[in-house]
Design goal:
By secondary structure, this protein is an alpha/beta fold.
């Protein structure tokens, strides 16, 4: 990239900023009008289990955002020798779903209940039956209805409820709006209108326990917006929230705030019908853009939308890489103790590559990577567990392959519903996430697990905040005169660099043997969990 041209772009505000609040990191990416990355920053944070609820403090969110912006501005100054005083457009994305209710004064009425909580089972089951539409436990409407069923006092005072991305956006520009993809994880969206499903909203409001409240559902939900439209402008107050030094000027166009699933689709160019992507991290999800409706309602398949409003079949699992990370950290501690400390990158590379030496069935070992509850496997609470039998082949290669198989196991179970029961077909399946930083290993295991070719793109390493920055570019200027899929093809991914790995017959057979053991052990694990809980 031309440093002089990019410095001029930064000075003139011909830039876009994407900020994403993920489960373990808050990240910021600044791009030019060609969607090329100019600077990045990040801040680590972690959810807390408080009174049985997984949550984050909003003060910590602002601390992370401000730290990211400060480091981003410093990165800009160091690279381009100019100050970051104005930005053309800004987009906020964050983990989808959850529950953030506010009263008419803007006071938060309850702790942020994240996607990770499995505390709305009664509400989710009842709503799925009443609406004839799958309502997962993590969806905002399930949290609201569960609060109603619980008789929680704050419900009567709700004036507005939103997601984490919607909240940050609201504070920055004053607009109570949400990108349609994120909105579709609050309440079902009608693909034809791009708005909340009117008939389902009517059914919800007709429930006797709901009708008793003074508010109307569509009045307390954020307005749903498709990608490519203006969603407000950065206010003076918002500018100071981002940059307490006062250097950043107000006025930046705000793109519709989106969920991390939507930005993942954008960053992998997977928003066109019959495309799909898989994002892996603390949680994991696959997004399959549908060209026709599913045949029936599945409790393990969510129907959400792309940022431009196309229906997507989503398989979401609460757990993926956390257990692997814990084991890698353990090996790292051992390396330190014997005087051979290694960088995290080296640890992951060495350990993952050892999995290539493993038996294809992982030697009879089993692992359940459930740091928190897992809906697809009906594990109600966090219970990570590693198991081996007397005859299992316990070695490092088999152990690491077991960890990878286990990370992808719930996702495979959900994807089997789409592929084998519904016959959903995708022309391309693109994967992104930290597990693919070590070349080939995780990508091949995922291909063998799902029985599908898996593509990893170079740009996928940029992830969600870059995808949000791309949406911010799309929201300004003439970019929104073409569809989002066409914009991505013609302006962003003209010459994509990628690698594709196909499943191997031996790998698929070995993975299926692991899955058979995994599923057979689930009932035993759940029974053991009940015994532990009782004691």
């Amino acid at each position: 990239m031309d440093l002089v041209k990019n410095a001029a772009s930064i000075e003139s505000g011909a830039t876009a900023l994407g900020v994403e609040l993920g489960s373990t990191r808050i990240k910021a990416v600044l791009v030019n009008d060609k969607c090329e990355t100019l600077a990045t920053s990040s801040f680590e944070w972690e959810n807390q289990l408080v009174d049985g609820i997984w949550t984050y403090e909003m003060s910590e969110a602002w601390k992370g955002i401000q730290t990211c912006f400060k480091e981003l501005a410093a990165d800009v100054k160091s690279r381009y020798h100019v100050s970051l005083t104005q930005i053309g457009s800004i987009g906020i994305s964050a983990m989808m779903h959850g529950y953030l209710p506010f009263d008419k004064e803007g006071k938060q009425l309850a702790p942020f209940r994240t996607w990770r909580n499995n505390i709305t089972g009664e509400a989710a089951d009842k709503l799925t039956e009443k609406l004839s539409f799958n309502i997962p436990q993590r969806w905002s409407i399930a949290h609201l209805y569960q609060a109603i069923l619980n008789g929680e006092d704050h419900v009567k005072d709700i004036d507005f409820m939103t997601t984490l991305a919607g909240y940050i956006h609201w504070q920055l520009c004053g607009e109570k709006v949400l990108g349609v993809g994120d909105a579709s994880g609050m309440f079902p969206v009608d693909e034809a209108t791009g708005d909340y499903d009117a008939n389902m909203a009517k059914i919800f409001m007709g429930l006797p326990e709901v009708a008793a409240y003074p508010w109307k559902l569509t009045d307390i939900l954020p307005k749903a917006l498709r990608a490519g439209v203006a969603a407000g402008h950065l206010t003076e107050t918002g500018a100071k929230l981002l940059d307490p030094t006062g250097t950043l000027q107000a006025g930046a166009l705000m793109a519709p705030p989106e969920g991390d699933a939507g930005t993942g689709m954008v960053s992998t160019n997977s928003v066109r019908k019959r495309t799909g992507n898989i994002s892996v991290g603390t949680s994991a999800f696959s997004m399959n853009v549908l060209d026709e409706p599913l045949k029936k309602v599945h409790r393990d398949i969510d129907i959400v939308t792309t940022p431009d409003g196309a229906n997507v079949a989503m398989v979401h699992v609460n757990n993926c890489s956390s257990d692997i990370n814990a084991w890698v950290n353990l090996f790292g501690e051992f390396a330190e103790l014997i005087g051979h400390g290694q960088t995290p990158a080296k640890l992951y590379s060495v350990l993952f590559n050892q999995a290539r030496q493993a038996d294809k069935n992982a030697g009879g070992l089993i692992n359940y990577s459930c740091l928190s509850g897992e809906n697809i496997t009906r594990v109600e609470a966090g219970r990570p567990l590693f198991v081996r039998a007397p005859h299992s082949r316990m070695n490092l290669g088999n152990f690491m392959l077991t960890q990878l198989y286990a990370a992808f196991a719930p996702l495979k179970i959900g994807m089997d519903i789409l592929v084998k029961e519904e016959g959903v077909k995708t022309d391309v399946m693109i994967a992104q996430g930290g597990l693919f930083k070590t070349p080939v290993v995780g990508q091949q295991v995922l291909a063998d697990s799902l029985g599908l070719p898996i593509t990893v793109m170079d740009t996928a390493s940029e992830g969600g905040p870059w995808g949000m920055a791309v949406l911010a570019v799309y929201a300004k200027g003439d970019a929104n005169k073409e569809s989002l899929p066409d914009f991505l093809d013609s302006k962003v991914f003209k010459d994509p660099q990628s690698t594709t790995l196909t499943p191997s017959a031996e790998g698929m057979k070995g993975c299926q043997e692991f899955i058979d053991r995994y599923q057979a052990g689930l009932s035993l694990e759940q029974e053991a969990g009940k015994v532990v809980a009782d004691n």
